[in-house]
Specification:
- The complex is a heterodimer of chains A (357) and B (269).
- Chain A is mostly helical and 357 residues long.
- Chain A has 15 helices and four strands.
- Chain A has a two-stranded antiparallel sheet with strand order 1-4.
- Chain A folds into two domains: 19-256, no CATH class; 275-357, no CATH class.
- The longest helix of chain A has 28 residues, at 221-248.
- The radius of gyration of chain A is 22 Å and the shape is globular.
- In chain A, strand 2 and strand 3 form a beta hairpin.
- Chain B is of the alpha/beta class.
- Helices cover 38% and strands 23% of the residues of chain B.
- Chain B has helices at 55-62, 85-91, 108-115, 124-128, 130-151, 167-180, 197-214, 225-231, 249-252, 256-263; strands at 15-26, 29-40, 44-48, 70-75, 78-79, 93-96, 185-189, 217-221, 234-239, 242-247.
- In chain B, strands 6-7-8-3-9-10 form a six-stranded mixed β-sheet, with helices on both faces. Chain B has a four-stranded antiparallel β-sheet with strand order 2-1-4-5, with helices on one face.
- In chain B, helix 3 packs parallel to helix 6 and helix 5 (130-151) packs across helix 6 (167-180).
- The longest helix of chain B has 22 residues, at 130-151.
- Chain B is globular, with a radius of gyration of 19 Å.
- Chain B starts with 14 loop residues before the first strand and ends in a 6-residue tail after the last helix.
- The chains are: A mainly alpha (357), B alpha/beta (269).
- Chain A binds chain B through residues 13-14, 17, 190-191, 194-195, 197-203, 205-206, 209-210, 212-221, 227, 231, and chain B through 63-65, 84-86, 89-90, 94-95, 97, 101-106, 110, 113-118, 120-124, 126-128, 130, 134-135, 137-139, 142-143, 146, 177, 181.
Chain lengths: 357, 269
């Protein structure tokens, strides 16, 4: 009923390999994109600047991490370090006088180089050992940043990002920054959507699921793991740069600590491995839920006239937020993306439930 | 299924695979030793032996998973001894696995498309610019895969996840994936294990058709002697990692050593 499938016939391979074979999915997406484009005009600036903008940038970053963890199946605990590489490189390049387009690309490229060089060494081990090795990348980067004032900007360890210009146009308005973040997030999303229907995506899944079976088909698993690491590092680098220039405005080492890496991992796992819509939802939950729970809790406390000590007040929302993650993962270990999928599959055949596969 | 077996008497015998003096040890255990085997073009070659006799070890040596400790393996004139599995695959050797090695998270079609990997050039830029760079390649290879899908009669399940299929179909999907690579040598490791008589006959027919239509040479590991006699041109019997008989199936299975290995002394007749 909601997803009318009757009369949809794909008669050639091009139409059969569409991203969204059912028009309802595509229309829903277009509607969301339309709302996203109109957001600066219909929502209060506060919501756009402090909720939707960071959500978009972190989603782009988390999608890059999902490429390594979800598609290629390699645990990665040093992702924030690669974002830091991109952020610092692009800010330094921009301060040096390179236009921001180039600066962001250089940041992404250096991040990709460091990410793949590192992967070259780290990918000789698998599973938990790889996880620990990637954690080492994070600690090395933390150490480098805290010991090199030339990179981090002297004794204050903070570096101002120069005025953001793209294509000769100074981007100083909230809406402008929002559209840059939206554009980047859309680009990364399109890349990952395409990954579902190309040889690269299939090869990565093959490496993730059974590397010996991948080998017998001619897939060089080491090479494809490196490709996954390099591509995700590139996405991390540019996302880090955009995060600084559009949201933080200055870059400090604390923005990319190990806690951020873990948080990104949580976003991917709560959202669902190899799930794009899930990554959006996962980032939304991890990034926005604490604030929402906090406000909700404050409003409830005010409404019922409850009095808590400030400490309790600070801790209960955190506990609720933690419980929320656990509840979601118990309901559906495959993540929020799978919950969305279940609802969609239900609506696909509703009201004829007996047709369900 | 017996009358259809082709004879080996083709005028110009061309060797596809030649193994000489293969030995593979795991620690102190000698899994395979002193095995010689040649497979000619267009031949269906049977490999039999009791459990643990080294059949799978021999295929793993050929496909590069466990390179032999001694001996050489030559594929179409190229020495492939000790090469990495993905390189050997790229030369035109495909195989299926005894315990199935399909990718359960992918559909039947995606699994078969993975078989085309060595004929495609997937990459990051191509994926990013799908509409311009990747689509022509994807569509062309999809068309090839559809031929295989039609050949193995998998049309109705092409968009289903492999995970939920019955074993007979899974084996067929794995054969399809191997054939999609257009191999010159196809190694089938017990393709009929766990199948009923009807499924076995289907599979035997597919193997014969694959040879006839696609010109592959086949190395077939199988326990069902009726299949071996029915479709294999020549065969090799192993026991405890050593050759105990080779030649035309009807002769080999009468060899006392083969009978002893399979049935045992007391029941020999």
């Amino acid at each position: 009923m909601f997803y009318r499938q009757s009369g949809i016939r794909h008669t050639d391979y091009v139409s059969d390999s569409k991203l969204f074979p059912i028009p309802a999915d595509r229309n829903l997406l277009l509607l969301i994109l339309l709302i996203a484009l109109a957001a600066p005009f219909i929502l209060a600036p506060f919501y756009v600047n402090s909720y939707i903008l960071p959500w978009l940038i972190w989603t782009a970053a988390a999608l890059g991490l999902n490429l390594v963890i979800g598609w290629a199946g390699q645990l990665h605990l040093g992702y924030a370090a690669l974002m830091a590489v991109g952020a610092y490189t692009s800010v330094h390049a921009a301060r040096f006088g390179i236009p921001w387009e180039g600066a962001l690309l250089i940041g992404g490229a250096l991040s990709a180089v460091i990410g793949s060089l590192f992967a070259f060494a780290a990918l000789r081990v698998k599973g938990l050992y790889l996880a620990l090795t990637t954690l080492a990348l994070q600690f090395v980067m933390d150490w480098v940043l805290s010991h090199s004032p030339t990179i981090t900007g002297g004794s204050h360890a903070s570096l101002q990002a120069p005025t953001f210009r793209l294509l000769g146009q100074a981007i100083t308005s909230d809406a402008g920054r929002y559209y840059v973040a939206l554009g980047w997030c859309v680009l990364v999303t399109i890349f990952l959507l395409n990954l579902r229907r190309t040889g690269l995506g299939r090869a990565l899944v093959a490496v993730r699921e059974k590397d010996y079976a991948a080998a017998i088909l001619g897939v060089n698993s080491f090479l494809y793991k490196i490709i996954a690491f390099a591509t995700s590092a590139f996405i991390a680098g540019i996302s880090g740069g955009i995060l600084v220039v559009c949201y933080y405005f200055l870059v400090t080492p604390e923005q990319f600590t190990v806690a951020v890496s873990i948080q990104l991992l949580a976003m991917v796992i709560v959202g669902g491995l190899a799930s794009i819509i899930g990554t959006y939802l996962g980032v939304g939950l991890i990034l926005l839920a604490p604030g929402v729970v906090n406000r909700l809790f404050g409003a409830l406390a005010g409404y019922f006239d409850l009095r808590f000590s400030p400490e309790t007040f600070a801790h209960i929302p955190n506990a609720v937020y933690g419980a929320l993650i656990i509840v979601f993962l118990i309901i559906e270990p495959m993540g929020l993306g799978k919950i969305y999928r279940n609802i969609r599959d239900y609506l696909l055949v509703w009201p004829f439930d007996q047709l369900k596969k | 299924m017996s009358a259809t077996s082709a004879t080996t008497a083709s005028p110009a015998q061309e060797t596809v695979l030649e193994c000489r003096g293969i030995e593979r040890r795991f620690g102190g255990l000698v899994a395979v030793s002193g095995v010689d085997m040649t497979i000619d073009r267009g031949e269906i070659f049977g490999l039999v032996g009791p459990n643990g006799s080294g059949k799978t070890t021999l295929t793993n040596a050929i496909t590069g998973f466990y390179p032999p400790n001694k001996g050489t393996i030559v594929f179409e004139g190229v020495d492939i001894t000790g090469r990495r599995p993905h390189r050997i695959a790229a030369l035109g050797v495909a195989r299926t696995f005894q315990n199935l090695a399909l990718f359960n998270g992918l559909t039947v079609l995606e699994n078969i498309m993975l078989g085309r990997h060595i004929h495609m050039r997937p990459g990051v830029i191509r994926t990013a610019l799908y509409w311009w760079l990747a689509r022509p390649e994807e569509v062309a290879n999809r068309a090839f895969c559809e031929e295989i899908i039609e050949f193995l009669q998998l049309e109705s399940i092409r968009h289903e996840l492999v995970d939920g299929l019955p074993i007979g179909l899974k084996k067929r999907v794995e054969l399809a994936r191997a054939l999609a690579a257009e191999p010159r040598l196809l190694i089938l490791d017990e393709p009929m294990a766990g199948m009923n008589q009807e499924e076995k006959e289907y599979m035997a027919r597919f193997i014969l058709d694959a040879r006839a239509e696609r010109g592959v040479s086949v190395l077939l590991i199988e326990h069902h002697m009726d299949v071996i006699i029915g479709i294999c041109d020549r065969m090799l019997a192993l026991n405890y990692g050593e050759m105990i008989g080779t030649g035309i199936p009807r002769d080999v299975i009468r060899d006392p050593r083969v009978v002893q290995a399979y049935i045992g002394d007391t029941h020999a007749h």
